[in-house]
């Protein structure tokens, strides 16, 4: 990945809070970017010529590195597909689902969200409108395992799930499932065991819950104003970042922990990616201009997904 140009960060940003570059799914600009801590774009897909004739790459919602860092798994939720991009070759190498054709069964998806690659090479995904979670096998495009009952989006794990929008692996064969309907978070395994379920307190639209630390879980409230919440499996609030007015978040969709304890998140409708220091309770790094969408240097347009460059990616945290 090459480094080019001057940095573009919001005033007051501290690049030292990040352990390395950030992968951003810049949804409404139809691109994914890697931005270094100084705010310089180091990699982008697609560039001119990256897409084969007839290929499209619309509205990438989420993007995560594969465990070896050689691929990026992109969820194009509103286009009904999951796409894998080869980082070095700048090429789409696999896609599951049919572009702009929602459906069910083993070959189609209906509003997939947060696809991630496991160390086995399999891909897991929450399939929101089909009320299910899946594990797929890219080499055959088959579905190895699924849970949920399409057409019945209610909280009744492990048989039924209420519009799941996140299926985050925990590295021990367990997954954290976030359910929009009823505002639930569940820890499950593939054998149908439910370890716990709870409501993130005071959250109206939970999104993409993942683990922050021992018995500490991180979620965001995809609302306006939005919030970031740390809670334990009993539902006790450990920390909350919520402000109104000019300091407020607008439809944040994903927050991830950083090695130093800070939290990086997409503030989607505010067109920025930020880092919050929970101890200082303030924003310490920002890429993008709040409320000013764009595609030029330093601008984003409804960024909806992020990850860190290996060895600090979400997949690396599963060791």
From TrEMBL:
InterPro entries: 6-blade_b-propeller_TolB-like (IPR011042), PQQ_rpt_dom (IPR002372), TRIM-NHL_E3_ligases (IPR050952), WD40/YVTN_repeat-like_dom_sf (IPR015943). Residues 1-22 are annotated as: Disordered. Transmembrane segments: none annotated. It comes from the Bacteria. Residues 185-290 form the Pyrrolo-quinoline quinone repeat domain. PANTHER family: E3 UBIQUITIN-PROTEIN LIGASE NHLRC1-RELATED, PROTEIN LIN-41. This is Outer membrane protein assembly factor BamB. It comes from Actinopolymorpha cephalotaxi.
